[in-house]
Description:
- This protein is of the alpha+beta class.
- 20% of the residues lie in helices and 7% in strands.
- A hairpin with a 6-residue loop joins strand 1 and strand 2 (17-18).
- The structure holds zinc ion.
- Residues 11, 13-14, 16, 30, 32-33, 35, 38 line the site of zinc ion.
Amino acid sequence: MATVKLIGYQCERCGHQWLPRDSEQEPRVCPRCKSPYWNRPRRAANVAKKKAGK
Ligand SMILES: [Zn+2]
């Protein structure tokens, strides 16, 4: 029984999934939508708001 582990990335903006050529280096932008924030969840903004409310 063999387990195949794929190293891939998913864009938080457009949902695009892809496999990088160099797995040791994260891509700067999403190859599809070219967004530099592809790996940044939208939570970051919400957390700031919740923190202020508390
Ligand atoms: Zn994207």
